[in-house]
Target: DNA mismatch repair protein MutL
Amino acid sequence: MPIRQLPDVLINQIAAGEVVERPASVVKELVENALDAGARRVDIDLEEGGVRLIRIRDDGGGIAPGELPLAVSRHATSKIGSLDDLESVATLGFRGEALPSIASVSRFALVSRRDDDPHGAALEVDGGRVGDVAPRSHPRGTTVEVRDLFYNVPARRKFLRAERTELGHIEEWLRALALVRPDVELRVSHNGKPTRRYKGEDTLFSDARLAETLGRDFAQAALRIEHAAAGLHLTGWIALPTYSRASADQQYLYVNGRSIRDRSVAHAVRQAYADVLFHGRQPAYVLFLALDPARVDVNVHPAKHEVRFREARLIHEFVYRALHEALAGTRAGQNGQPGL
Ligand code: ADP
Ligand code: MG
Model:
């Protein structure tokens, strides 16, 4: 075959393979867009585990009618303009990939209105084919509708699991979000029935929110962590060894507000627990690490599940120390001796 340039729709569908694994990835990308737009409340309506329908409505800043086609174009973003911006990026998104990718593998609609616009506007995209912008009434904010995910990519559709399983992935991701953004109201419905509501709260990182998301048992066994050194700041909760888990299902790590997985940090945590947990048991934790954005590269993974620390060893040591000290304190306390 001769070399040829792929058409845009196909490029987007290929990119979708990296960004859109399942309905939960769509919910993640769309809710992150809502948060980046300053939403105070996000409604998440789902049908059939999100496969049939995902509708995300927010009360954020909205999109100008003339910019709707750009919003669904590849590499178009309002969040960065230069490599320098990327160094200090404070938004969850920045790659300008999510909407075109999602719109290329679904029946997609975007409706939005900004505060000062006389009315809203809508744009539909069917399997990557972009329609025309049309006026549509809408309150301030944005609604994105994603129907029939992967209807045009049978190979992908085959990998979707049962409705319950897909819904479970969505709920798990929302739980992780509710922990780090208790200030935003999240309302979820599934097949027309309200299933979950996280109220917007004033207090960040309250024990009540921990109990609501991960259960009373965790909250009761939780030690609050607060540790700072070398420009690194760690807060959150770790569970006492008495509340250990059979699997790593309650391990939440956030870096500058972004939920991520990191082997090195996970290892530091395991090491801190090494003396106090039975072999094979897993610790439970919710850790928020904050540091200068210039010290961490967030552009490592298309779905942004991972970051790269410029000083991985320093961070490993810092996390280990913070947790080791907290856990040592409780052991001493249990023996009736003063903490270390
Ligand atoms: P990214 O988030 O990386 O910029 P996306 O493809 O997710 O890329 O979105 C493209 C652009 O569309 C965003 O940069 C933003 O300007 C706009 N946009 C998307 N969703 C929303 C929303 N819910 N509210 C306001 N603007 C949005
Ligand atoms: Mg985005």
